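Moderator note: this is an archived Q&A kept for reference. The question asked for a predicted structure of one protein chain; the sequence and the answer are reproduced below.
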Amino acid sequence: MAENHDIYFARLILMMERLISDKSVSVYKFTEMFNVDKRTVYRDIKRLSFFPLELRKGIVYLEESYDLVRPDLSTKELLLTELALSAIHNIDESTNKRVHSIRAKLTNPLYFNPYNIKPESFQEMSMDSDTVNKIEDAITKRNLSKVTSNEITSIVQPYKIVAFDGIWYLLAKDIADKKIKTYLVSHIQEFRASTKIFSTDYVDINAILENVHTAWFEDGNSFSVKVKIKKEIAHYFKLKSHLSSQEILKENSDGSIIVTFDVSSDEDVDNLIKSWLPHIEVISPTRFKKRLINELEEYLKVLKNTPSI
């Protein structure tokens, strides 16, 4: 038991040292480094949650501004302290208050820095559930599988468990129509892997995911949405790409910019555009522009007919 604990503790230290060095490491890289499965890595990350870590799309990030080199406590001392506190956490309310007090003293000013980065909130998903275990094994072994979701059963090639807006989905190819689809993990009623192995030689999943923006993407469908972004918010789109396919085509003399997004469905860009109204205008396609106008008109009708509270 002591030997196992030493291995576990050493793994946590090595994980943090790697993160301090590289600032970001993929979950897959950690599984290779320590010869463990993803569930083990996710548990370890949860154990290290008192550090300013952020998990996004299978990559663990450490705040750029964070520096663990402190004169007060070493990396090993910090980890040992947190593990000890975790062991007695939730015993009772009084203990919880004491644990919180100790952590507060440790983190202020020891861990103080002028940045506050909010991690993405993820849907709770049990890494030990029977369904998740079966999906992971099928993905790893490339087993053709049968999935039943919302009373519909499909034969699929399971590729990845992915998160869109914090919700977990199974990304898989439906054999019937030969299209890649998403299945809500929480809605999967049955998952059964066969012994048949499928080939992924012709499928670059990472390249596909690079251009997938929402769970509503439509495999095999692609079109461009062109928008005019007014000067009031143009700098936000110059500072960062809001979708991986974002491209600035033109900067106008009035400070506005023309931007395009390559998407597979209206939903890929719908919420983005609505969140920046009225400082964004759809230029094309005309179909999308008309749909947006109709939705806004319907919304205004509802507001006008809704009595004030």
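Archived answer notes: The longest helix spans residues 2-22.
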